[in-house]
């Protein structure tokens, strides 16, 4: 295939004409497909149906230590759930607090607590003139929504396949005490599917922030969410690395079983140092008497242990892998050689990140939508919804069935081509069709 | 029985001597009983075991409207759960948001949001020099803990059998714009078991607070928690009453199924005006993608409707009623005529409130503890843990089996008598034994 930029204006106009005709055909299909959110598909949800059978009225709902899971209490979470989550999060069970059904909620509450009560005795952030967060971009829109909601100023930090720009991070946190945190999805990152390199993690653990209440918000959402058995990313465990670096209190690590069991009916957890846990417990005991222990027990009885969980994740991978591979092969087929876009090829997680020519992402997403395919809003992967280059688009292949995914991916590629052709022609001073 | 105050010093000293001998016998029993918290007992928890059977791997986990409860989404809660909770809370389902597993958590989050973001556009409370709450006393320690945690100044408002002192409340909220809320447990109140009179509720609905962001925090924790079928308290529904009074936005109403199904594995809800709901949703959508819908569905499938729930509560009542009646009869038997204490006789809820002679409550609770019976800490029913008269003690009869409850109640009465006798003798200038 010839790169669009190397086509003559006449060639490209003809190409565009043909593409628009194809697009009209798609519009006639009355599609209603969604590649917007990282939602598990029905087949994935079916994997966990056995979870509905492990507790019954014949069961004893007691923990191993005799705690009756049906009654009030146990702020930290039951012992066996801490063990399971600890194995999943690669930390000591003593460093874990089990929460409710959403790690996002834990992150929100963590920021909210810092706003009203500070961090381990620091000035509450709501009393400071300025609070800033570093945001590796592209990143997760719901992270950015939390910091924006609390009026925290967000600073973009560019991502590479090794993780965020550590030179920039080291410099900024050392010189600016108003920087209180950084959002990280360190493994199979959202949306690129990158995993931080060993060096990146080591540099994180060795940060010397000017602010004593600076914390790394380490959202290890995809810790065991591999697509392949034999080709997995490995991430250095950050709590242990911080401890080795003499920086035990530097990190909050978040995770949940939302894409393991049922999203919304899962269990979430935070792992962090004893000092941080003590700080958190002071608040948590005011907020609640305890989280849902019956659901904790249900998870433990179903998965039994980390081995059971890993086996379970293999089945998820079997469903997701073909979807990721399909998207990749269609994009290759449609776009290779045209030089109008690039995309990532993750080995895990829930997303593929696509970069179009500059100033095309919004138009591509809008064009997809007009033909019935919903993508994550362009800009969503950046703080304040502003992608400075207007080029990043997050692709979420998990939810649609394969046959729908193929149609959606072809339409997406078509829209990429149309907007690229239009953009190049425009730049050459040619008038292009409005639609 | 002769009132202690009418006994001669010699008579009372002899009585005390005999009481202390009895107390020694109790100490020898090595008791470990607990009347401290409003925990359901094992038999009550057993009532809801069928809840573990209503969902299984054969079940469709879809809502009536086709929503798959296993996946992300539905911020407000599923429609059928809203209907069930609405019937329980006596409001329109459109006025309800379903939350997670704890109404305490909802209340905490409500205050926290007001601290960081104000109420319907008002100045965030964290930016104000002074924020105050009215606290009917005696009241619920966990309410007071939330307001204390956020540095909110608490003002005691005396309770009577009709509810809190409305003259005082009307005057204070009208003249002081720093008063932003009031904690209410309007039905079978914690700890007295009083239900607000019709007039009290009407006056609440007609409050004219100086602060536009003043809200009534109406914790209707015991709305269907009657002890008797034929002798139930009735509470005027506050949302409707506020609406009629032209004060729709004045109240947040909280409830949960924590003492209906399983505490900690229940569902909680807030009911309030559309304006307030809109204000809450703006925040909630940042905090979470949605609460546990599978558990919402479990509740709906188990109880089916409000009739099922009410029938279920009859079984709770059958277990609790004998416990309340036992406490009352033992206290009557042991204390009637002595004029050293009074207690409430609730028709529902979880507590009995006891008032000793002034300056005796702490000593009574400590003495109970030394003999192995744990009571709610004296002072806990007051803000900052300070009962100005040191006389109120909350009795929680729900958890211990009847045979234990009898022992605990007798020991409690004994400790009341001992401390009363000591107090009266001390006041007469007599030296009393230290232990």
Query: In which range does the helix fraction of chain A lie?
Result: 40-55%
CATH architecture call of the largest domain in chain A: 3-Layer(aba) Sandwich
Order of helices and strands of chain A: HEHHEHEHEEHEHEHEEHHHEEHEEH
Oligomer: homodimer
Low-confidence region ranges of chain A = none
How would you describe this protein?
The structure is a homodimer of 435-residue chains. Chain A is globular and about 75 Å long. Chain A has 435 residues and is α/β, with parallel strands linked by helices. The two termini of chain A are 25 Å apart. The longest helix of chain A has 30 residues, at 306-335. In chain A, the strands form three sheets. In chain A, strands 2-9-8-7-6-3-4-5 form an eight-stranded mixed beta sheet, sandwiched between helices. In chain A, strand 7 (215-219), helix 8 (238-244) and strand 8 form a beta-alpha-beta unit. Chain A folds into two domains: 4-44 and 310-427, Alpha-Beta Complex (Aspartate Aminotransferase, domain 1), CATH 3.90.1150.10; 63-303, Type I PLP-dependent aspartate aminotransferase-like (Major domain) (Aspartate Aminotransferase, domain 2, 3-Layer(aba) Sandwich). Chain A has 13 helices and 13 strands. Chain A has helices at 9-28, 42-46, 79-89, 103-117, 141-149, 166-175, 198-205, 238-244, 274-287, 293-303, 306-335, 361-370, 402-427, and strands at residues 33-35, 96-98, 132-137, 153-160, 163-164, 179-184, 215-219, 251-256, 268-271, 341-343, 352-356, 373-375, 392-395. Chains A and B meet through helix 4, helix 5, helix 9 and helix 10 of A and helix 4, helix 5, helix 9 and helix 10 of B.
